[in-house]
Specification:
The complex is a heterodimer of chains A (378) and B (206).
Chain A lengths: L1 H11 L2 H25 L4 H9 L3 H24 L1 H9 L5 H21 L1 H27 L9 H49 L13 H17 L3 H9 L4 H37 L4 H47 L8 H17 L10 H7 L1
Chain B lengths: L12 H26 L1 E7 L14 E7 L11 H4 L25 H4 L2 E8 L14 E8 L11 E15 L5 E10 L3 H8 L2 E6 L3
């Protein structure tokens, strides 16, 4: 029965609209109404009985009114999906937001530094070399430190003192050398996992300015910069053109993953808004502490869990964007009747030319359209 | 040159979020619980479930503390207000007693050794709808006069307490009123025997 109704409704309305906006909005407003009455001390069972005793026409009007409001709200939510995603990415252009963005950016930049194996290994190798040089110097000094028969007793005491200092320094440097070697081994062992983390979650360590304040922002930024880092291909410019050439199966997967990401972020946003609204309301009417805790912490927890869920979808979404550039960029060249490049260097030059052509209408580019296509048009 | 990494305190935004949300939740909850205790009152509530038409005695009640927010506006708060009344409906244990649940105050002697009896009432019986719980009335059974003459003289039951007057809605949208009276146990047999084939008259002193 429910399945039939659901199928009928989804036939009329867009399935994605229902799942991503309508049902979350319905639950959001339903919970707000329940909290409003429960907080004011109403017995919910008695309230349901009172409602049920009303005239059928009045009940129908109330249901229609509620559904209309929820649909209207869901419509607004759908139109604001991009804004919601951008907010979770960390594009915060309000006074407190800018401060928070700095905190988030600094934290992620530190984390990126920790993941940057190459730089850290290089630094450790430099330090090791430095320590080894110092050890050689100390070894030489120790060998020259042996007492001679001509030394006076005062000189002997001085030499003994120097030797003991050198030995202390040698012990300290050897400890440091052991520690640095341990760090080096540890880094080498974790190198693959660190590379993978950067590949999935961060812009390249050479681009710390592109680090975003949130994990979601960094995952999507990573996908945005991928094509430029690898092919010098401007994703913002090329993506709308490439998108139309992607095969249907790929587009379907892409739409599903994007829908899953949107759904999780909508749930997260509505949960946090619910936590704040219900929290403030319950505090104003001085409701039960237990109800406040349930609504405030419950909303915040669901919001956080949904955000964590969104990160999984964002990784898959970012992977699909990256793989679409890897797999189908040549289809775009073919569609533009341009010859396929033979080397990576040639490809980078080709995409630079295309960028110049599209952005600044530079027709002085060196390419020639492919012969077969010209003949085909004749 | 140090051999260990310097300790640097740094939190991600998720951790900052938790740092803000957890203390705010604890502080606000503590405040609300404190406020609840400040506005609590001790009231008398039924020790166990009380049946309908039960005359309330001090032993039936127990003291419990409730937040004023959770108390209905018409709750009885003083013991003097409750004792001496009887329940109009079944009253669950440990739930505040409200005006809707209890009758007006009646003389406890008038309820002693009585049974609740329901009488189907007409608008005339309910005195045009003005009859209410707590009223003291006289009930008279007038035998129907036949061609052969009256079978017996009218029978009067004086000083009968009206426990309740209820209008029961029926499926065919008509409603039937029921008057519940507290009949002295000693008059029960007589009441039953006289009620057959007699017209009931209910009178109240003005």
């Amino acid at each position: 029965m429910f399945n039939d109704v659901f199928r009928e409704i989804t036939g009329v309305l867009d399935r994605r609209f229902l799942l991503n906006a309508f049902f979350p909005s319905l639950i959001f407003w339903g919970l707000l109404v329940v909290v409003a009455f429960a907080g004011a001390g109403w017995d919910l069972v008695k309230l349901a009985q009172i409602w049920n005793k009303q005239d059928v026409t009045f009940k129908t009007l109330q249901i229609v009114g509620c559904l209309s409001w929820v649909t209207f709200f869901a419509g607004i939510l759908t139109s604001q999906l991009t804004a919601i995603v951008r907010f979770y990415e960390g594009y915060w252009n309000f006074p407190l937001g800018r401060r928070l963005a700095v905190i988030g950016k600094n934290w992620h930049q530190e984390r990126l530094k920790e993941l940057d194996c190459d730089t850290r290994l290089k630094a450790i190798t430099d330090q090791l070399q430095n320590v080894q040089t110092q050890l050689v110097v100390i070894d030489n000094a120790l060998s020259n430190n042996s007492p001679q028969p001509s030394n006076s007793s005062q000189n002997l005491a001085q030499l003994q003192k120097e030797k003991s200092q050198l030995l202390k320094q040698q012990t300290r440097l050897k400890k440091q050398q052991t520690w640095l070697k341990e760090q080096q081994t540890q880094l080498e062992e974790n190198q693959a996992s660190f590379y993978n983390s950067i590949y999935l979650y961060y812009p390249l360590p050479t681009q710390p300015n592109n680090v975003m304040p949130t994990t979601l922002g960094n995952i999507l930024k990573n996908a945005e910069l991928y094509s430029f880092d690898h092919y010098d291909l401007d994703a913002v410019l090329i993506w709308p053109r490439l998108y139309n050439l992607l095969p249907n199966s790929f587009l379907q997967t892409f739409a599903e993953v994007k829908s899953s990401l949107d759904f999780m972020l909508v749930i997260s946003a509505l949960s946090v808004i619910f936590a704040l609204l219900s929290g403030v309301y319950l505090l104003i009417i001085k409701a039960s502490g237990g109800l406040f805790l349930l609504c405030f912490w419950g909303g915040c927890l669901v919001g956080w869990l949904a955000y964590r869920g969104a990160l999984g979808s964002a990784v898959v979404y970012a992977e699909l964007i990256k793989s679409s550039f890897d797999l189908y960029r040549n289809e775009l060249l073919k569609q533009m009747r341009l010859p396929l490049p033979k080397t990576p260097k040639e490809e980078i030059e080709r995409w630079q030319e295309i960028r110049e052509f599209l952005y600044s209408n530079n027709t002085e580019v060196a390419w020639r359209y492919t012969e077969s296509d010209i003949r085909g048009q004749d | 040159m140090s051999t260990s990494k310097p300790f640097k305190f740094s939190l991600s935004l998720s951790q900052w979020w938790a740092v803000v949300v957890i203390p705010v939740g604890i502080a606000t909850t503590a405040y609300l619980f404190w406020h609840e205790t400040q506005t609590s009152v001790s009231i008398l509530v039924p020790k166990q479930d009380l049946p309908a038409y039960h005359s309330i005695r001090p032993g039936d009640l127990v003291e419990k503390t409730y937040s004023t927010r959770n108390l209905p506006s018409n709750t009885f708060r003083n013991p003097q207000e409750i004792i001496g009344r009887y329940t109009l409906i079944q009253s669950p244990k440990e739930k505040p007693l409200t005006e809707k649940q209890l009758s007006s105050k009646v003389d406890p002697d008038i309820l002693a050794n009585t049974v609740a009896v329901g009488i189907t009432a007409t608008p005339a019986t309910t005195l045009g709808g003005s009859l209410q719980a707590g009223d003291i009335v006289d009930i008279m059974f007038v035998p129907i006069t036949t061609k052969a003459g009256s079978s017996s003289s009218p029978m009067l039951f004086p000083n009968i307490l009206i426990l309740d007057v209820k209008a029961e809605s029926q499926a065919n949208s008509s409603s039937t009123s029921v008057v519940v009276i507290a009949l002295p146990l000693k008059h029960r047999q007589e009441f039953i025997s006289k009620s057959f084939g007699a017209t009931l008259l209910l009178t109240r002193k003005l």
